[in-house]
Amino acid sequence: MENGFFKNIEQKTGVRMKDVIELANSLQNANFKDERTVRDVIKRVSALANKSVPQQLEDQIVQSIVKDGRKLDMQTITDMLNKRE
Fold this sequence. Notes:
By secondary structure, the protein is mostly helical. It has helices at residues 2-13, 17-27, 35-49, 55-67, 74-83. The longest helix is centred in the middle third of the chain and has 15 residues, at 35-49. The N and C termini lie far apart (34 Å).
């Protein structure tokens, strides 16, 4: 059943669940107070989502996370990406 669920998500989003799981695993021990780490995560998520992130938006996300202490998770990044549309 799980396999069918993931296949359905893959078909709808075009994103392989293997890639999502790898990204999630890499986030577990990441230092989100480090600007370079946060920028790397943003680039990886945008590549997975096949969406470009303008420099201004990337800077806003980085400031929100590194300087303002906002938590970083997939929902936070997705919300920020969707605001630009």
